[in-house]
């Protein structure tokens, strides 16, 4: 079972997320938190695999709670819930090691998929939210980021670039392996090398770097 912590200051939101997640046979909502401080304490004291954090919460906001959970319970994978108006916060969250993000109005099945992906150690980038985040990168500052990203990617081999491009699309190791005709274990090895070469803490950071650089899968 995937053990989930749901943190949101709105009881109805927490109840809705609980109802959706517990409809899946392999997911159990083992704890809820009303604010960021409670979320950190619960992640530290409770056996949790995935934490779902709202960004706008009292006591500690979701971004601060994310950083604290990374310190006191690094084994917990954190997904950030967001709205379109919080795109810069999403980038900051991913930069702090979040396992991914999705929108509060996502379809129930997408929420379940995101939790499963995070629990499996994969990044989850909501397609709709990703498009909006990418829109914010179309700026002068984005040009500099793109140049820096392409410079960093120059250290990768052609095969590593192919794997990274699929990470940028949000594919799991298994799906990337099927696309590239490689075993899941081999893809995992490539991902480890990529993270080391790019000095990224996790797959999501690498995926965003790929997007900054404009890297696309072959034929994409």
Automatic annotation (TrEMBL):
The keyword NAD does not apply. Residues 3-119 form the Response regulatory domain. GO terms for molecular function: DNA binding. It comes from the Bacteria. Pfam families: GerE, Response_reg. Keywords: DNA-binding, Phosphoprotein, Transcription, Transcription regulation. Residues 149-214 form the HTH luxR-type domain. The modification 4-aspartylphosphate is found at residue 54. InterPro entries: CheY-like_superfamily (IPR011006), NreC/VraR/RcsB-like_REC (IPR058245), Sig_transdc_resp-reg_C-effctor (IPR016032), Sig_transdc_resp-reg_receiver (IPR001789), Tscrpt_reg_LuxR_C (IPR000792), WalR-like (IPR039420). Coiled coil: none annotated. The keyword Repeat does not apply. This is DNA-binding NarL/FixJ family response regulator. It comes from Streptomyces thermodiastaticus.
């Amino acid at each position: 079972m995937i053990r989930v912590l749901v943190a949101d200051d709105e009881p109805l939101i927490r109840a809705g997320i609980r109802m959706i997640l517990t409809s899946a046979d392999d997911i159990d909502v083992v704890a809820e938190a009303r604010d960021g401080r409670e979320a950190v304490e619960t992640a530290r004291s409770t056996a949790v695999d995935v934490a779902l954090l709202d960004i706008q919460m009292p006591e500690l906001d979701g971004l601060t709670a994310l950083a604290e959970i990374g310190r006191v319970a690094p084994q917990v994978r954190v997904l950030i819930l967001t709205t379109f108006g919080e795109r810069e916060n999403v980038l900051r969250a991913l930069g702090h090691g979040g396992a991914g993000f999705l929108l509060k109005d996502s379809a129930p099945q997408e929420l379940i998929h995101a939790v499963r992906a995070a629990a499996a150690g994969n990044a989850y980038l909501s397609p709709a939210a990703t498009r909006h985040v990418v829109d914010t990168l179309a700026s002068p500052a984005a040009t500099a980021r793109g140049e820096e990203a392409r410079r960093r990617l120059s250290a990768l081999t052609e095969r590593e670039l192919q794997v990274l491009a699929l990470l940028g699309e949000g594919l799991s190791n298994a799906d990337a392996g099927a696309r590239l005709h490689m075993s899941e274990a081999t893809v995992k090895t490539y991902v480890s090398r990529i993270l080391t070469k790019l000095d990224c803490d996790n797959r999501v950071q690498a995926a965003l770097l790929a997007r900054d650089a404009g890297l696309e899968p072959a034929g994409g």
